Amino acid sequence: MYNEVCAFIRTIYPDRDFIPLHEPRFIGREKEYVTDAIDSTFVSSVGAYVTRFEEMICDYTGAGHAVATVNGTAALHMALLVAGVKPGDEVICQPLSFVATANAIRYCGAEPLFLDVDRETMGLSPTAVEEFLADNSTQKDGRCYNRKTGRPIRACVPMHTFGHPCRIDALTEICQRFRLSLIEDAAESLGSLYQDRHTGTFGDLAIFSFNGNKTITCGGGGVIITDNEALATKAKHLTTTAKVPHPYLYEHDELGYNYRLPNLNAALACAQLENLEFFVDNKRKLAAHYADFFESQPLAFITEPAGARSNYWLNTLLTTNIAERDHFLQSTNAAGIMTRPAWNLLHTLKMYSTCQTGELTNARWLADRLVNIPSSVPQ
Ligand SMILES: *Cc1c(COP(=O)(O)O)cnc(C)c1O
């Protein structure tokens, strides 16, 4: 079964025994910049490429400030910390996400509160958030509290799943009304637009990831973006061991982190960013090609939500039920074509199994059915 699907995917990536889900492409000045970083001897925590990378991210997204970090998870941890997430707080997020989203919340000593996603976007549902807050929260001294637990609900972390923008405008309005910080986990959606604005520029803060499997990569890396200068300054300070500038003294004025992006990785990131629009363009062409093919197949291809331009990081199909999903995964992987199900829903993982959840009907529905198919930029 699925011979036709496998044959079609092989026409996109010809002459390959094994077809991975997503692999990087180095077609620009990567080697030149990395060699330049080595020649400069600045390969580590100081160097010109870090600043250049941060400037390029601001230019590209339109964000006011960018702070490079060692990976996307560290970026999310820092974004939550500078947004004021504290031990004992609660933070709204979606169960359909990579584990890093919930982990970063826990690193702050806070508890994830899992609410449902929309079926169309696969991202956090503004309807679910609004209903939960209307039924379960109360405002006191300009802050949002969970009526049941008595704990502050401090922030909300929507995720733009597989690169498809969630309904971020509605979430922005709800977070303002209920006084929650909004931190976008845009790890997967660099290059995606919602109503002509980059994902990541709606929240108080946002993060992108440059891990090896993302749209562009620098080996490992992340970045925080924000329009708030004070938050950016704070994030820069905390990610660089909270060291106070001084010609020779080692003064650290609070608990800091060694979360800075090495210059070597930043060099790679700069070269990849130069080709980002080319990659997004080609990923969108690939998605259109897939959409066309799956018209005549009993599998639904997920297209970008209304009002959005998606980077189509990972192309996604919907099977009709979990048995068919498993059959699809089995057949394609056995044929050397890498396909994957959704992540295990986060509230089902051992360390999050006692967390509060809302109704998670759509998250469960999607997790039972969705599969990701090969999505690298074709060569
Ligand atoms: C990739 C990813 C991250 C961060 O990943 P790193 O590997 O730490 O760069 C965070 N959240 C989501 C949803 C991701 O997909």
Brief descriptors of the model:
Aspartate Aminotransferase, domain 1; 16 strands; 379 residues; four-stranded antiparallel sheet; binds pyridoxal-5'-phosphate
Mind explaining what this structure looks like?
50% of the residues are buried. It contains twelve helices and 16 strands. It has a seven-stranded mixed sheet, with helices on both faces. Strands 12-14-16-15 form a four-stranded antiparallel sheet. The chain has a three-stranded antiparallel sheet with strand order 9-8-13, with no helix packed on it. The mean pLDDT is 97. It is an alpha/beta fold. It binds pyridoxal-5'-phosphate. Pyridoxal-5'-phosphate (PLP) binds next to helix 4 and helix 5.
Average of the residue pLDDT scores: 97
* Category from helices, strands and their pairing: alpha/beta
Distance between the termini: 27 Å
In DSSP terms (H or I, runs of 4 or more residues), the helix count works out at 12
CATH structural architecture of the largest domain = 3-Layer(aba) Sandwich
CATH fold type of the largest domain: Aspartate Aminotransferase, domain 2
Total number of beta strands: 16
CATH class of the largest domain: Alpha Beta
